[in-house]
Design a protein that fits this description.
By secondary structure, the chain is an all-alpha fold. 32% of the residues lie in helices and 3% in strands. α2 packs parallel to α4, α4 crosses α8 and α7 crosses α8. The protein starts with 52 loop residues before the first helix and ends in a 15-residue tail after the last helix. The N terminus is likely disordered.
């Protein structure tokens, strides 16, 4: 296991084939309002921290609790229907092993350097603790949205979405290699704690704009689509049908390879 080698940012390259394209970054949520060392922008007030008790039930602060994940990393199970059909937090892979797996199959593949991978890890840990959003959820959304590519571009389908989490119209959207840690942390703040223009995961957990009930799976559909069919979280609402199922599988150890949600017959 690599465990915490990325913290010292001295990683060896690992060869891997490209994973399948989740295609979520270009789908985005048009309906949902969401230099030197950079000043981190956050939405002010309680919206920067999850306070909804249901939302907090999807948060584990330890970083080490969890399962070993899928023994075959390209395993994919089809999840659909309402939130109750999706896997409970007790079945998720532990964060450090999940990071190591995505480091091998995504971060190295897209060309992130060792220090950049370490900065992503540091940003996830820091923002998770501040926002009370599980680090595994942040990591899964990063991989889903950008494959962890710190140089990912913006997309615009009526709203500009940028950065590692393709956040809602962020004020400072570009990666700055001269301010590596702060610019990467800003991307994670934008997607998790929101931007001045609109919601991040925290606001969705806290029922801002969409009445998610604080349930993670509803939050993810809202994050991707900007609207939610609570009876069928695979209803894409103009976005990615497999999005919530994809993130669920990433939390269980899916490495992004194989056929993924294409075998599930999602609408």
């Amino acid at each position: 296991m690599l465990i915490l080698s990325f913290l010292i940012a001295a990683l060896t390259g690992l060869a891997a084939a490209l994973p399948i394209d989740s295609a979520s970054a270009s789908d985005r949520r048009s309906a949902l309002s969401h230099g030197g060392p950079r000043t981190l922008f956050t939405r002010n007030g309680a919206g920067s921290v999850v306070t909804n008790p249901t939302g907090l039930s999807f948060y584990d602060p330890t970083f080490s609790d969890g399962t070993a994940g899928y023994s075959t990393p390209n395993t994919y199970n089809c999840y659909s229907g309402p939130a109750a059909n999706f896997p409970p937090i007790s079945t998720w892979m532990d964060f450090n092993d999940m990071f190591n797996r995505n480091q091998q199959y995504s971060l190295v593949v897209v060309g992130d350097s060792g220090p950049e991978q370490g900065a992503i890890y540091n940003a996830i840990v820091s923002v998770s603790q501040q926002a009370k959003v599980d680090a595994r959820v942040i990591l899964a959304v990063i991989i889903q949205e950008s494959t962890g590519n710190v140089r990912v571009g913006c997309t615009n389908n009526g709203v500009e979405n940028c950065g590692l989490m393709q956040s809602f119209n962020p004020p400072d959207p570009t990666y700055d290699p001269n301010n590596m840690q702060s610019s990467i942390t800003q991307m994670v703040v934008d997607g998790t704690q929101g931007t001045p223009a609109g919601s991040g995961l925290v606001q969705l957990f806290n029922n801002a704009g969409l009445q998610t009930g604080g349930n993670l799976w509803n939050v993810l559909r809202g994050y991707n689509s900007g609207s939610i069919d609570f009876n069928n979280l695979s209803d894409p609402k103009g976005a990615t049908a497999s999005y919530v199922s994809d993130v669920a599988n990433r939390l269980l150890g899916w490495n992004g390879y194989g056929n993924g949600g294409t075998v599930c017959g999602f609408a």
